[in-house]
Amino acid sequence: MTATEILLIVAIVLQSVATVIAILLINQTKFNVLWICCIIGFSLLTVERVCQLLAYDGVDVPRTTFIWLGIFISLCFSIGVLFANVLIRYIDRINLNRRLLENRLMTAVLRAEERSRADFSRELHDGLGPLLSSAKMSLSALSAQDEAYDRKELIDNTTYVIDEAIRSLREISNNLSPHVLNNFGLARGIQNFIDKSCTVHSTKIVFKTNLSAERFDSNIETILYRVVCELINNSLKHSGCTRISVSLSLSGDELRLHFEDDGRGFSPHDMLGCGMGLSNINSRIASLNGSFDIESRPGEGMRADICVNIDSAIVHSLPRRRDKIKQKRENGED
Ligand SMILES: Nc1ncnc2c1ncn2[C@@H]1O[C@H](COP(=O)(O)OP(=O)(O)OP(=O)(O)O)[C@@H](O)[C@H]1O
Ligand SMILES: [Mg+2]
């Protein structure tokens, strides 16, 4: 057997295997025309190789057989390539659907988390708060009646401890579900967090915004609020900065957040896996279909830019509401 015969046999075997694999995958391509044409083209190529092998061994294969096989092979591959864009669109659609599904899952998880935080916060505030307040009132009444100095001091100390418990309960409840954010919106919520941070840190924090009392989807407000808190906490905790500036602006449908500190800086890509903070910001902003860019180098502070389209974020976070609106419009109820 010559080398040419061996190579022809190898080509026939490989093309047959490729054809079988392509046939097995046909279901997954939803019977795409490009795929079917490739299968037919491959099968005809195998037939052509067989004819070449026979001709090589002296069998008289008519020349027209090769001509027709060549024409059909060219046709199959050309038609297949013409339909390639259908396959590409199909793959794009699958990728888009997967991204949407991931975003919806993330949104659902975040919403569930926020809801349970809010429930817990309410339980603490409304359940434990009044009990502590009434204990404090009883002690105050006791203190007013009792003349003994020792007992009075004891009662005053206990009242002080209860006061502290009430204060820390309010703080825990507020951290779990910030009431300024819930009641007055994003700008006031962020300002409130900054004011509280300034009371315990010497770093200057400047906040600028063109928002006043505008309200957005609660998911957008909560996520952006928590992102700002994490960025500020990171700067205060890791950067040793003297100044932080936060700016939040709404222009058209886009909500933009710019954050800067003048601290020691870091390499964001090396640090992504170090803690939960930065990767949480990434996934939370992705769930709103927004963008998060962070720029920092050792010794040069850090800058972060976040942009969320309030319309598309709502579309992604509230598919049901969007569907209902669409349905109403179709029914002419608008
Ligand atoms: N503003 C900053 N300046 C300097 N380094 C920073 C800054 N922000 C983050 N880093 C660095 O990036 C790392 C990762 O930050 P990330 O918020 O993900 O985690 P963490 O703050 O360490 O922990 P966690 O947020 O989970 O409590 C930090 O440990 C810190 O080294
Ligand atoms: Mg952090």
Task: Give the CATH superfamily of the largest domain.
Answer: Histidine kinase-like ATPase, C-terminal domain
The CATH topology label of the largest domain is Heat Shock Protein 90
Radius of gyration over alpha carbons?
34 Å
Which structural category do the helix and sheet elements fall into? alpha+beta
Q: Helical stretch count? A: 12
- In total, the number of strands is 5
**Helix/strand order:** HHHHHHHEHEEHHEEHH
Q: What's the pLDDT, averaged over the residues?
A: 87
Cα shape: elongated
3D architecture notes:
By secondary structure, this protein is of the alpha+beta class. The chain has three domains: 3-82, no CATH class; 117-176; 179-321, Histidine kinase-like ATPase, C-terminal domain (Heat Shock Protein 90, 2-Layer Sandwich). The chain is 70% helix and 11% strand. It has twelve helices and five strands. It has a five-stranded mixed β-sheet with strand order 1-2-3-5-4. Strand 4 and strand 5 form a beta hairpin. Residues 234-235, 238-239, 261, 263-266, 271, 274-278, 302 line the site of adenosine-5'-triphosphate (ATP). The site of magnesium ion has 5 residues, from helix 8.
